[in-house]
Amino acid sequence: MKISSLDTRRSARLAQAMLCLDDFEPKAKRHLPKPLYGYISGGSETNASLRNNLDAFQAYAFRPRILQDVSKRSTETTLFGQTYTAPFGIAPMGISALMAYRGDIVLAAGAAQVGIPMIMSGSSLIRLEEVVAAAPATWFQAYLPGEPERIDALVDRVAAAGFGTLLLTVDTATLPNRENNIRAGFSTPLRPSLALAWQGVSHPQWTIGTFLRTIARHGIPHFENSYATRGAPIIASNVTRDFGRRDHLNWSHLERIRNRWNGKLIVKGILHPDDAARAAETGADGVIVSNHGGRQLDGAISPLAALPEIVERLGDRIPIMIDGGFRRGTDIIKALALGARFVFVGRPFLYAAAVAGLPGVLRAADILKSELHSNMALLGVTTIEQISRGHLVPA
User: 292 catalytic, yes or no?
Assistant: First the structure.
């Protein structure tokens, strides 16, 4: 992935000007065509779950300890036997390569450079083999294709590529009502129109640097990883078939994958303690408490609100992770205090990649890690493991 030194310097300057993760979003809103920004930023229906995810952090306040020697504090943590520089990673996000040139590779390479995990989305426009070759520690997130023979083939493909961690997103029984996408002009498949053409003309930096550059070097983007074989191009009328036939999926499919997959197996999209317990019983190595960033069932409970009951039910049986609305180091600390082992952050990293490429991803990770490091000192702890429920009180 060759990038001119001028572009690199510009991206680095832009990234360094960002002071917090929220600073990337208005930049991305101006940089991206309206349909693409709308696709990233929106949730389903009334955006109730999207708002709940952000508001949930306000339910807790900190009770710090003072006069603790915190001079040797560290944000390092261990998950599945792997040591990471911080207890957060990059969540899976679809069609990232439309937002940033080679977006999935940029996100994966940035995570690898920082020393945190990145989860590649099953609705990526870049072949999973290319991403894992660029960043071997990347995790892969799959949307189950439905038919048993296709499930087997996809699992075998992921294993053959060299992924060590497979993550199943299980809260997509059907396509949600994302009317916000339609209002913003986004559709699947992408349909050429005068309005879409104007968005390209009015956003030349994205058009030249991401869209035309992708077309020239890699052709029309396809959904590359829905099955073991190549999926449909993003402009194909039959593209929605790549996301169908999931309403009959059940626990037997998870059992089938567990029996076939030898690596770490994570289940993402859990909000009920009974489901968390059953995932563990079925052989999952970990769960991610998630409502899909507010993009599936509108009005679903926020992951942070669901977390305490799930932690109480599972205890230390398997690692409990979480995503949804995380923007600050203090947000991460609240989740860790409530019993999460690890946090995943999505939209801010994609905004960062869109506006500043790899330097943006590195800057976003550095901001979050620096906030966490400072917040630990102010809380009075030196290790991630010392963060506990006693550090929180109801707000």
Answer: yes
